[in-house]
Predict the 3D structure of the following.
Amino acid sequence: MKHSVKDLLMAKDGLMKIEFAQEHMPVLMKIRERFTKEKPLKGLKIGACLHVTKETAVLMRTLRAGGAQVALCASNPLSTQDDVAAALASEGFEVHAIRGVDNTDYYKHLNAVLDTGPNITLDDGCDVISTIHSKRKELLKNVIGGQEETTTGVIRLRAMAKDGELKYPVIAVNDTPTKHMFDNYYGTGASTLDGIMRATNILMAGKTVVIAGYGYCGKGVALRASGMGAKVIVTEVEAVEGLRAHMDGFRVMKMRDAAKIGDIFITLTGCKDVITGAHYPEMKNGAIICNSGHFDVEIDVRGLRKTAKKYETVRPNLEKYTFANGKWLYLIGEGRLVNLAAAEGHSSEVMDLSFSDQALVSEYLAKNAKNLKAGVHEVPVEIDDWVAKLKLEALGAELDVLTQEQKKYLESWQEGT
């Protein structure tokens, strides 16, 4: 098996991290137990472009237990945990991931995964799917289906489908409740602030935090920043979400106005040019800027570097940009995903849900892809319900059960007041 990792001698540390993650991912482990017996993915090749973390490693082990041949590359140059990549390579996985690679090596690694001729693609940002459709079209005949786990990736996929360019069925794992209501909300909320704290060690209490985008990710970060004593401002382009932010107790204003009063800026929109050169001169001296959206396009980092007199790394994952007038700003993680660039990403407990969805969707595609048309599809409700029930069981929580009379009442229309 091929691999491109930083140092195989790091494998021992990575294996310990993976084992720790497994202990906190009971749902995925239960799925692996069944996969080991039934081998629902036998004979299939899976090509994955995901953040190479200890939690992802647990998913890779589960997919292989189900009979699949798995190849993995990193979906972000700064999210790879090198010791985990080494651990997977030591177990015989084909893995291509080194933290800090440049754009050339990023796509070299991605194409190495594509060279295996995957039947199912797992995407975190749609780079695998877009590359297959644009530069590796010869692989389309091998692919039976795919899945995407990010908001940004699903946006790209729907654009492809709208233009008639998406040539195989893709399941939008991101859009299923056990993913976006937990991974995006609880996971991003906790891990984003974790990344900021690790990079800066600042006190959040009393700071004015500007959150760009009030989707599930933005809501999670806003709630947790507020809980730590921050004064939260939200910027939005959607009227309903802006109104929700207002009703949740946060100030809502344009970024050009928020730029003047914010201490910390966090982008979570899935769009580009959210913070640009027009905002930097307006910001307070020492303001901190970071991104928790998938791609590094939400903050104009190139423009920041061009206009700054100098920039230097002052702490791990923290750059200081000084301008000609003596003012300075801080940027975390080069404008890439702050929770993975400066921290370890979402907790294992949260990823237990998302990766259980992905494992079961892989099985669903293996059995049903031939009946699905090219386009974007939702995760079957039964998968979502099953994952949620298993998680509740693992947490020691119990649900009530409807009586026959209650079921009859809910299914009928005759009974009124």
About this structure: The radius of gyration is 22 Å.
